[in-house]
């Protein structure tokens, strides 16, 4: 299975600032995703990170707020822009790999607290 | 459209007792189904996946799940709970490799000594 690392693992930020989260996977994968998990909640898909092109955002998420890059097959970044306390969440990078069927794996998450 | 319903946001069992976490899905085509576990302050770990090869799927840590098409269910079980099983469990469904996973709301499992 893919091994996924995320940086930073956690951060405390002031409102109005931006934070960029990095996701690195140890092997080539077919798809990369970014999820948000608000406290005590399930996972919500933010966007699919597309290599070399603009990410595909889910309803309720926009590029200006959550710009995403994916310069190659194993690396992606998510920026949380102009943060507010409502952005306090766990942000998870996820990848798909073909193992029989497409199987999805998750990184350890980035725990963000916005004051 | 796909959806997943996990019955019971919180399940509490005694150590050594049977664990049963319920998951029902809705899908217009044959689904791929997954169970993930999230330990406190960690990411999600894949427990097991249904690939249509066998209806009874065995996963890690002694967990298994049975796919029942007639009941549109994919319940997760473990014969004997251990304290280390205390975690949040998520059921997820997708139709294909290009369709994002849809997650249930999760079930928090507590194990009482």
Provide structural commentary.
The complex is a heterodimer of chains A (115) and B (113). Chain A is mainly beta and 115 residues long. Chain A is built from no helices and eleven strands. In chain A, a hairpin with a 2-residue loop joins strand 7 and strand 8 (75-80). Chain A is globular. The N and C termini of chain A lie far apart (36 Å). The model of chain A has no long low-confidence stretch (mean pLDDT 93). Chain B is mainly beta. In chain B, strands 2, 5, 6, 10, 11 and 12 form a six-stranded mixed sheet that branches. In chain B, strands 3-9-8-7 form a four-stranded antiparallel sheet, with no helix packed on it. The mean pLDDT of chain B is 92. Classes of the chains: A mainly beta (115), B mainly beta (113).
Write the layout of secondary structure elements.
The complex is a heterodimer of chains A (115) and B (113).
Chain A: E1 4-7, E2 10-13, E3 19-25, E4 31-37, E5 43-49, E6 56-57, E7 68-72, E8 75-80, E9 89-99, E10 101-106, E11 110-114
Parallel strand pairs in A: 2-11
Antiparallel strand pairs in A: 1-3, 3-8, 4-5, 4-9, 5-6, 7-8, 9-10, 9-11
Chain B: E1 3-5, E2 10-14, E3 19-21, E4 24-26, E5 32-38, E6 44-50, E7 56-58, E8 64-68, E9 73-78, E10 87-94, E11 102-103, E12 107-112
Parallel strand pairs in B: 2-12
Antiparallel strand pairs in B: 1-4, 3-9, 5-6, 5-10, 7-8, 8-9, 10-11, 10-12
Number of helices of chain B: 0
Number of strands of chain B: 12
CA-based shape of chain A = globular
Mean pLDDT level of chain A: 93
Identify the biggest protein-protein contact and residues per side: A-B, 25 and 24 residues
Distance between the termini of chain A: 36 Å
The fraction of residues assigned to DSSP E strands of chain B is over 45%
Q: SSE order of chain B in H/E notation?
A: EEEEEEEEEEEE
Helix content estimate of chain A: under 10%
Taking Cα atoms only, what radius of gyration of chain A do you get, to the nearest Å? 13 Å
Based on helices, strands and strand pairing, what is the structural class of chain A? mainly beta
Instruction: Show unreliable segments of chain A.
Output: none
Give me the count of strands of chain A.
Answer: 11
For the biggest sheet of chain A, the summary is: 7 strands, mixed
Distance between the termini of chain B: 41 Å
């Amino acid at each position: 299975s893919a091994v996924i690392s995320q940086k930073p693992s956690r951060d405390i930020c002031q409102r109005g600032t931006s934070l960029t989260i990095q996701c690195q996977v140890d092997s080539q994968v077919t798809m990369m995703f970014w999820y948000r998990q608000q406290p005590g909640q399930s996972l919500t898909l933010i966007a699919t990170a597309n290599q070399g092109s603009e990410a595909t955002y889910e309803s309720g998420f926009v590029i200006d707020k959550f710009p995403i890059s994916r310069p190659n097959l194993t690396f992606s970044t998510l920026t949380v822009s102009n943060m507010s306390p409502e952005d306090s969440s766990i942000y998870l990078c996820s990848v798909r790999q073909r193992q029989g069927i497409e199987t999805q794996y998750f990184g350890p998450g980035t725990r963000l607290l916005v004051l | 459209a796909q959806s997943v319903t996990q019955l019971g946001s919180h399940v509490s069992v005694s150590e050594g007792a049977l664990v049963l976490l319920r998951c029902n899905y809705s899908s217009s085509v044959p689904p791929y189904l997954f169970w993930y576990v999230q330990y406190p302050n960690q990411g999600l770990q894949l427990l097991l996946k249904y690939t249509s090869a066998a209806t009874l799927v065995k996963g890690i840590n002694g967990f298994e799940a049975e796919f029942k098409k007639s009941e549109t269910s994919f319940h997760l079980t473990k014969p004997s709970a251990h304290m280390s099983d205390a975690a949040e469990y998520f059921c997820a469904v997708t139709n294909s490799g290009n369709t994002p996973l849809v997650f249930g709301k999760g079930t928090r499992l507590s194990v009482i000594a």
